[in-house]
Amino acid sequence: MMKSIKKIVALILAGIMMFVLAGCGGTDKADPAPKAATSSTKKIGVAMPTQSSQRWIQDGKNMKDKLEKLGYTVDLQYAEDDVQAQVSQIENMITNGANCLVVAAIDSNALVNVLEQAKKNNIPVIAYDRLLMDTDSVSYYATFDNKGVGVAIGKYIEEKMGLKEGKGPYNIEFFAGSPDDNNAHFLNTGVFEVLKPYLDKGQLVTVSGQTNFDAICTLRWSQETAQKRMEDILSGYYSTGKNVDIVVSPFDGISYGISAALEGAGYKVGQKWPLITGQDAELMASKNIMSGKQSMTIFKDTRVLADKCVKMVQAVLEGGQPEINDTTSYNNNKKVVPSYLCTPVPVDKNNIQKELIDSGYYKKAELE
Ligand code: BGC
User: Fold this and answer.
1) Does the CB atom of residue 181 touch ligand 1 within 6 A?
2) 68-91 pLDDT, tens per residue?
3) Does 145 contact ligand 1 (Cβ within 6 A)?
C-alpha cells in the first residue's frame, strides 16, 4: 500500500515537472546561450574617450554586449575627453583585477605610465581604434584604414569637383583632427596625398593659406573649436565676396561646427553652399547628407570593429591568433603593432540607402 502511494506521488511529481519544463523552459529565448567556460570569471576593462560623439557610445555598447555574450565581465568607462580621468579609470581597472584592457585613448601619448603598470601586472592591452603611442605594453590594434579614410575624402572631392578633368580653381579650406590622436595624422596624410597636386597646379586654392597640420588641427576634435576657426577664416579671408567652395572636415562633429559658421556668415544650403566632408556617419550627419547640408561622410561600421577587437581579447586571454591584416603600418615609436584594419566606406546621397539602411546600421525612419 505504502509503496503504491509513493509510486503515485512520484508519477504526479514527474507530470508536474514535465508540465513546467514544457511551459517555461521550452523556448530558445528563455534558454540562455551557453557561456564560454574559460571566460566566465575574467574581467575586461574597456576605456573609451567620450560620450559626446555618437560613435564612441556605439563602440562601448558593442564591445560590452559582445564581451558579455562570451561570458566576460566588463568594466566600461568613459572619460569625457579628460586625459587625467582616463588615466585614473585605467588605474582603477588594474587595481580591480582586470584581466585585459581595451583602450581608445584620448591622448595617445599620455598613457605610457599607466600601461607600464598594466604590463607589470601581466595584463594584456589592446588598442581600440586609436593607436597607443610610445609603449611596448600593447599587444594588438583594431582600427580602420586611417590613411584610407583621408584618401577616400580626397578622392571624393577629386571626383565631385572634376579635378582630374582640370576643373577649378576652387577655394578650399582644411580641417584636421586632434594632434594627440595618431589617426588624425594618418587621415591628413591621405587627404593631402590626393589633393596636393591640385593645390600645386592652382585648381585648388586655400585662401586662408592654412594647410600645415599645426594650423588646421582641432584639439580633441572639438566642434566648438572648429566653428570658431571657420568663423575666423570666413571673416578674415572671405568677407570681400570670395566664396568657399570646399571644406575638408575629418569628423562629423567638426562638420557641424563648420556648417554653423557658414550659416552665421550668410551661406545657404543649395546656394553656393560648399562641399563639406565628414567622418563616422553619425545620425545627424546622415540626416544632413539627405538635406544637402553635408556632402559625404565616412562610414566606419563599429559592429565590425568590435568583432575584430573581441577576437583579439579572446586570443590574448584564451590563446590563439587573432585575425591580423597589417603588420607594417602602425609603428608607435616602440614597436610595430600587429593590426586589423577594417575598411572605411564613403557615403553620400547616392549610396546612403545601401550602406546605412540596408545594412541595418540605421532604420529608414531615423533618417527622415
Ligand atoms: C576616430 C574617428 C573619430 C575621431 C573623433 C578618431 O580617432 O578614428 O572615427 O571621428 O576620433 O572622435
Assistant:
1) yes
2) 999 999 999 999 999 999 999 999
3) no
pLDDT digits over 321-336, tens only? 999 999 999 999 999 9
pLDDT at 85: 98
How far is the CA of 25 from the CAs of 20, 21, 28, 32, 71, in angstroms?
7, 5, 8, 10, 21
Name residue 205's beta-bridge partners.
171
- Distance from the alpha carbon of residue 178 to the mean position of ligand 1, in angstroms: 9
Ligand 1 near 300 CB (within 6 A): yes
The H-or-E segment that residue 89 falls in is helix 83-95
Task: Read off the pLDDT band of 317 (50, 70, 90).
Answer: very high
C-alpha to C-alpha distance for 44 and 49, rounded to whole angstroms: 16
Phi-psi region of 140 (alpha: psi -120 to 50; beta: other; left: phi over 0): beta
- What's the angle, vertex CA 152, arms to CA 217 and CA 145, rounded to 5? 80
The pLDDT of residue 117 is above 90: yes
Q: Quick one: CA dihedral 100, 105, 106, 110, positive or negative?
A: positive
Q: Which atom in ligand 1 lies closest to the alpha carbon of residue 50?
A: 12
Q: Is the CB–ligand 1 distance for residue 135 below 6 Å?
A: no
Closest C-alpha to ligand 1, atom 10: 251
- 48, 55, 141: which to mutate for ligand 1, most atoms within 8 A of CB? 55
